[in-house]
Amino acid sequence: MKRTVTLCCVFLTLLAHARAQGGAPRAHTTPPDHGGKIESNYDGFAHETVVALRRMSVTCEAVRGLQSTLRGVCVSLQASLHCPGKQLDYVRRATLRLTFEAKNWDSRHPSDQRELSAVADGETIRLGRMTLVSNSVGEGWFAEDAKETLEVSVPYEAFLKLARAAHVELSVGRTAFPLRDKNLAALRDLGNRVRLPRPPAGATQPGGAN
């Protein structure tokens, strides 16, 4: 009997302590195994906190291109969320960056073929014209390796549509390719790194009704 009373006292003491700390301890959540690397840093020059998905491979297989299929093209993805100041409660914008690597000069995108579009679960989303971040070719007389990096800034709402979709295909100019499941999982993980406040009860949701 005394043992039972003692155990009850210990339990009540632990429960009271947990409530004093703001509730029961949260269960440890394991990050999704998508293979991407996500980092958060404060940029003192831009006065913003940047949560970024580092460069992640999308495909090194067939990519639909100008004529039929471009082979030997490697595409990688980067994404970042930009939060003003030192906080993670409000996202001002998102950035998407794509890098194309190929052994073909013709795989690069001229300035009039840099419009980025996405088809997310059947919905077409126009994301805007990408800008050239870097462009390089291999060294030597017979070098043909080409590497091109393009970037675009998009509204946070557009990023969420991509991150929450089950299937996404991106197209830049006439080049199109699907994102892998791991890419989408990494984008969802990136979106979960910010703590957006919940709207008040009865408030109108973006794109919805009361």
Give start-end ranges of low-pLDDT stretches.
4-12, 14-29, 205-210
* Residues in β-strands, percent: 35-45%
> In which range does the helix fraction lie?
10-25%
How far from one another are the termini? Answer: 56 Å
Widest beta sheet: strand line-up = 1-2-5-6-10-9
Mean pLDDT: 78
**Would you list the SSEs in sequence order as H and E?**
HEEEEEEEEEEHEEH
Radius of gyration: 23 Å
Tell me the overall shape: globular
- How would a textbook summarize the main sheet? 6 strands, antiparallel
**Contiguous helical run count:** 3
Structural class: alpha+beta
- What is the quaternary state of this protein? single chain
Tell me the total number of β-strands: 12
Fold blueprint:
Elements: H1 2-20, E1 38-43, E2 48-59, E3 63-64, E4 69-70, E5 74-84, E6 93-102, E7 115-120, E8 123-129, E9 131-137, E10 146-154, H2 156-164, E11 168-172, E12 175-178, H3 181-192
Antiparallel strand pairs: 1-2, 2-5, 3-4, 5-6, 6-10, 7-8, 7-11, 9-10, 11-12
Helix pairs in contact: 2-3
Give descriptors for this structure:
six-stranded antiparallel β-sheet; 210 residues
Verbal overview:
This protein has 210 residues and is α+β, with helices and mostly antiparallel strands. It contains 3 helices and 12 strands. The strands form 3 sheets. Strands 1-2-5-6-10-9 form a 6-stranded antiparallel sheet. It has a 4-stranded antiparallel sheet with strand order 8-7-11-12, covered by helices on one side. Strands 3-4 form a two-stranded antiparallel sheet. α2 (156-164) packs across α3. The longest helix has 19 residues, at 2-20. The protein is globular.
